[in-house]
Amino acid sequence: MPHERDLILSRRDLEFLLYDWLDVESLTARERFAEHSRETFDAVLELAADIATERFAPHNKRNDAEEPRFENGGAVLHEEVAPALRAAADAGLLAATMDESVGGLQLPYVVGTALQCWFHAANVGTWAYAMLTVANANLLLAHGTPEQVEHYVPDMLAGHVHGTMCLSEPQAGSSLADITTRAEPQPDGSYRLTGTKMWISGGDHGLGENIVHLVLAKVPGGPAGVRGISLFLVPKILPDGTRNAVVLTGLNHKMGYRGTVNTVLSFEGALGHLVGTEGRGLAAMFHMMNEARVGVGAGAAALACTGYLKSLDYAKGRPQGRPAGAKDPATPMVPIVRHADVRRMLLAQKAYAEGALALVLYCGRLVDTDERELLEVLTPIAKSWPSQWGLEANALAVQVLGGYGYTREYDVEQHYRDNRLNPIHEGTHGIQGADLLGRKVTTAGFAVLRDRIADTVARAGDLPEATQLQQALDRLVEVTEILHAHPDAEERLANASVYLEAAGHVVVAWIWLDQVLAAAGREDDLARGKRAAARYFFRFELPKVGPQLDLLASLDRTSLDTDPAWL
Fold this sequence. Notes:
By secondary structure, the protein is an alpha+beta fold. The protein folds into 3 domains: 4-157, Butyryl-Coa Dehydrogenase, subunit A, domain 1, CATH 1.10.540.10; 163-279, Butyryl-CoA Dehydrogenase, subunit A, domain 2; 429-558. The protein is 53% helix and 11% strand. It is built from 17 helices and 9 strands. Helix 9 (372-400) packs antiparallel against helix 11, helix 9 (372-400) packs across helix 12 (444-460) and helix 11 crosses helix 15.
């Protein structure tokens, strides 16, 4: 029987990705990471695995069964959440990638991404509080005043104070230009915020001493649209110990992430302070949003990985049926992993889950090497591709378990529901597609991506996958040029989601081919598994890109020409 930890994430796969593929050890040649070594990386990852296994995983199902409840004007969580978060904070893991000057471990971001994946996979509902807090602290470090940083960030990294991001509103949804929360300037330089924020994860709880809300609002008299949006720091508890005018008016009950309280907050003249400059709030908030987007992708990949490992374990131990050629009913049953269709479902999960995990770790390494242009173009893919195909991996995990997979007694059913939220977290699939096609592919990062893929193809030599990938890349570049030569923006972006899916598949095919090259010459099970998953992706998945790109090149108007009255 595998150890419980081995059903959360594969340490063997993480080691391959970090050391054999991404060569994370070479980062120690950089001044920022000079005090580290593989030994320190391994020690921190081992610590994260232990805490995730011992403190987070045990209450994952309880999180799902016992949602936060609304009592006496506040949100109440069950008692296992706070100690788990405290254990991670006390170990310094919330500050893993932060500067030493603020109490951080100054680890590479790619290592920080890997350690977060342990917590995402073990209990995504509890880890969400920490993920939001860390992203909140990073935004303040980048855009806050020295006083704001000094007063809040150390306590956030120590786990005493938590953070949120307050963007959406009931009437606006994802259309942030239409928010109506207003911030009235006060004579002392502070602001009073009035309005309602919706879908605020971690918006109220008793996990620490305070909650720092980062709130988008408009100052009266400012320009219309997003140019009039500013960002404000609004604490739940004011420095004098009194309660700020932030009122919890309701809880949202989602199909997954049930351990993460999701709230409706009313700001009723709440005291806030400007972060950055007026009218530049959305630009500052993107610092947190982009970090959270890759974090959502990492969470989706981690949930796909743990679902795959649990369904693989089940398939190896569940006897049912006989080989196709066995006609004698006295023939012993075989484990279902011996059936070709079950192996197909497991191989598909492996291709999706490990491809997604590799993608988000690659993005983490881009942060460490300051390759911002490439990271910018990959961010919408790193958010949406794992969210879409990690969910498909979880659906296949449920199917592998058969009828048992659809019951709450087994974990895979919850993993599916938890992952189903990720296509909408931090910007929907459609928003990411419009961002990629409408903006990101027009930047220098797209050319960097093209060249990076071409380099892998060149190193792959005469491998048939190399030719297939080059053809897909050439067609993607060609169709991108066709779309951006078209003057009608509405037509150009009508099928942006299809573009996102096609581009994502090309990127993940590249990621898989690069992994195959990293495993060249090895004949152990890990290397053979990598080659099998890559073969699956190139045989079953990459061919889907051709018809999608043909559709895009045709500037198909089916969706545009459909009258809402027909629906």
